[in-house]
Write a structure and sequence with these properties.
Number of strands: 2
Strand content: 15-25%
Number of helices: 1
Distance between the termini: 13 Å
Order of helices and strands: EEH
Number of domains: 1
Radius of gyration: 12 Å
């Protein structure tokens, strides 16, 4: 992980984060590793 920014109201369960990975391969392997959690991970090419 190169950078991580957590957003949203700290008093709410609706929070989200922008996570920057070093390369596309690490993003894709992370999305495969987290498939069974309640998280949603989408790999994008835009900068944070």
């Amino acid at each position: 992980v190169v950078d991580c920014r957590i957003c949203g109201d700290p008093n709410s369960v609706m929070r989200f984060a922008f996570i920057e990975f070093a390369d596309d391969g690490r993003c894709k392997s992370s999305s495969n590793a987290w498939w069974n959690h309640s998280w949603f991970l989408s790999c994008q090419s835009s900068a944070i």
